Amino acid sequence: MINMDEKNAYKTFRIASIRPDNYRVKTFTLDGALEAKPGQFCMVWIPRLNEKPFSIMNADPLTFNIAAVGEFSNKLHELAVGDKITLRGPYGNGFALTGKEKKVLLVGGGYGVAPLYFFAKKCLAQKIEPVMVIGARNEQDVLLEKDFTEEGVRVVVTTDDGSKGIKGFATVAAQAELDAGGVDAVFACGPEKMMAALARLCKDKNIPCQVSLERYMGCGMGICGKCVCGGQRVCADGPIFPGEEALKENDFGQKSRDASGATKTL
Amino acid sequence: MADLTTKIASLTLRNPTILASGITGVSCDSLKRTSEGGAGAVTSKSVTMEARKGHNNPIMVAFEGGFLNAVGYSNPGIDHALQEFSAYDGEAPFIFSIVAKDAEEFGEIARKADSLQACAAIEIVLSCPHTPGYGTMAGQGTPQATQDITRAVRQQTKKPLSVKLSPSIQALGDIAKAAESAGANAINMGNTAGPGMVIDIERGQPVLAFKVGGISGPALKPLAVRCVYDVFESVKIPVIGTGGISNGKDALEMMMAGATAVGVGTAVHYRGPQALGEIAREIDAWLDAHGHASPGEIIGIAHENEPRK
Question: For residues B188 and B162, what is the distance between their CA atoms, to the nearest angstrom?
Answer without folding.
Answer: 6
